[in-house]
Amino acid sequence: MATKMLTIPSRGLENECKEIHDSWGQLNRLVLALATRTRIERQQMRKTYEAMYGEDLVKRLQEAEESNRSEAAAISRRLCAALSLWMLDLHEHDAFLAREALQHDDTNYKALVEIFVGRKSSQILLMKQAYQARFRRLLDQDIINIDTPNPYQKILVALIASHKAHHADVSQHIAKCDARRLYDTGEGSPGAIEEAVVLEILSKRSIPQLKLTFSSYKHIYGHDYTKSLKRANSGEFESALKMVVKCIYCPPNYYAKALYGSIRGNPTDKGAIERVMVSKAGSDFDDIQKAYKRKYGNELRDAICESIPPGDYRDFLVTLARKMN
User: Fold this and answer.
1) Which of 244, 67, 233, 39 is nearest to 155 (CA)?
2) Residue 164 is assigned to a structural domain of this protein
3) What does the entry list as the binding residues for Ca(2+) (predicted)?
4) Rg, C-alpha atoms of the chain
5) Residue 213 belongs to a domain
């Protein structure tokens, strides 16, 4: 049965935690109890639940996700996975996503890029600490040691280096110089793009500085830098770089496209919808929703209702979309 969108009256966290404890097996009640909560409220509920029942609410949700592996329970598993992500602290959430991305048969580079592009250096540091504490591994080394090196890996290693550097304030002069270097090594030369130059820039500049560089490129040359990556001799590196540049330069458009593909069943990134909606809650999701409507002529919540079968999973996603309006 689908969840009715009601707001639970505030009766104290103890009462709500008791209701959650009594709701296992009834996912609609879990959605009602958790989906509308702020990050601070979710952290408080997690602590209160553990104090009352001696178990971590996130771990309980993850166990519920793993308890039924039948094909018929696939939607319930996705909901439990999304709810567990929803309850995690930001750095725990990113650490969990990073580990999950690396454990895929095909590494989910998009999820990793979104983390390193979308977070501040201080947040990346906390995420790495959480990753090491949880998985007893070093995230940087796990990325460097990916079995089959490829362009995404090279770019990620550069972004890792960028977050370790000490950046000065954003500089218009540096942005213009880097834009010209990108032109000279790309569409301004007859051969293939010089990867070393691009990787050097990515490794030495902050994300805000890179964003200004791509804006300067458009101002100087009259078109987006990504257009220069669509030349006939473009290869895998250019394709990976184009995705990363879009994520840096215009996040709302990038995430709107990711949501659109996931809602329509893109097999290459099925988890994008819950990953994006949970990750971007409370930050710039309003801009993402506006970009979605502008690009695809439909409200995000309406697209979710049209494409995902009725039920608790859909209700959770719709609640997030409404919450972030």
Assistant:
1) 244
2) no
3) 25, 65, 263
4) 21
5) yes
